[in-house]
Amino acid sequence: MAGLASMDNQADLEKAILSTIVYFDMFDYPLTATEIWQGLYWEMRDGRSKILDYSIADIIECLENSNKIKSLADNKNGFYFRRGREEIIQTRHQRYLIGQSKWQRAQRITKTLRLVPFIRMIAVCNKIAYNNAGDDSDIDLFIIIKPGRIWTTRTLVTIITGLLGVRRHGRKIKDRVCLSFYITGKAMNLEKLSATKPDTHFMYWITQIAPIFSLNETATAFWQANKWIKNHLPNFTSYQGVDYQRQIIDSQLTSFVRQTAEKILSGGLGNIIERKLKKLQLKKMSAKTNSARWKNNTNVVVSDNILKFHERDARMELRREFLTRLKDIYG
Questions:
Q1: What are phi and psi of 225, to 5 degrees?
Q2: Which of 211, 276, 313, 318 could form a disulfide with 123 if both were Cys (CB 3.0 to 4.6 A apart)?
């Protein structure tokens, strides 16, 4: 435990706590003391500060005794939030209830998608992953695929979700799956996709990824590849919100079907199919691939290891809003 003996250390911890509260306030999401510790955000620019190992007890002590925090944040029913924002406790509760049916729908869809060859992990991401989605929200999925078969797998996922009538399309958004982010096992480290240095929203977004189906320790490898996040979120570990009731386990039947399909689509025949499907998809997504050619564009990425289609990526706007709110506090 670092303790709060140093005035500099206390000031740094106060800023880290307030930064965390301010970030989640942008999404109407109050935090418990434990959640503040888990998401504790460090961004020190003066060259003096460094990340210290604070415990949950240190966080609670600072929350209870810091005049700075008390002047800017309130707490009620175990939740901490910016002063005057008590109503977001009810918002969080309502969105939690909304999220339960979306989680169940994501599970049902995943039970089918686990049959798709070369899929190694399916995860829920974005707001639904931490139970903060609105009623009209879609269900964002993040999918990891065996290297060399990203185009084949994406084609099959698109076809299946289309046939099931669950894929987001046009104005059909509510409770539909959004399939805008695929990677292969060669692209587990997502740091190069950061839009800014640091990319606050992207780091939190990654920590909230919630795997509900994972093969061969893929989820563990993914978290290991993204330990760089600890430079700003030191208490980040793998997402803790997916309990066993939400996880989809492979069965002998689903494993047999998937592995049989993988044998058929491997080797020379599979390579030919992969190349043809890549050519076909690139032709259909010409507008997206054009934007992917922009220099340093991390919103839309099209390659053999990453397919990311976030044309309306709000990370830069969220970063500016976050810094503006911090400036209002610290000047």
A1: -70, -20
A2: 211
What is the pTM (predicted TM-score) of this model?
0.92
**Adjacent-strand bridge partners of 220:** none
Per-position b or e across 130-141, b if 16+ CB within 10 A of its CB: bbbbeeebbbbb
Cis, peptide link before residue 211, omega less than 30° from 0: no
194 by Cβ neighbours in 10 Å (0-12 / 13-18 / 19+) ranks as middle
Domains defined along the chain, listed by start = 7-86 (1.10.10), 99-314 (no CATH)
Which tokens hold the place of 94? 């309502």
Three-class SS state of 60: helix
Q: Specify the residue for token string 């330990």.
A: 227
How high is the pLDDT of residue 1? 42
Task: Return the DSSP state at 132.
Answer: -
Predicted confidence (pLDDT) at residue 63 exceeds the cutoff of 90: yes
> What integer best gives the mean pLDDT of the chain?
90
Non-local CB neighbours of 82 within 8 Å, separated by 6+ positions: 21, 22, 25, 72, 73, 74
Does residue 18 contact residue 329 with C-beta atoms inside 8 Å?
yes
Residue 318 backbone phi and psi in degrees, to 5: -65, -35
Position 208 scores a pLDDT of 92
Dihedral pair phi/psi, residue 144, rounded to 5°: -110, 135
User: Which residues in 152-188 are b (16+ Cβ under 10 Å) and which e?
Assistant: bbbbbbeebbeeeebbbeeeeeebbbbbbbbbbbebb
Instruction: Report the alpha-carbon distance of residue 330 to residue 63 in Å, rounded.
Output: 18
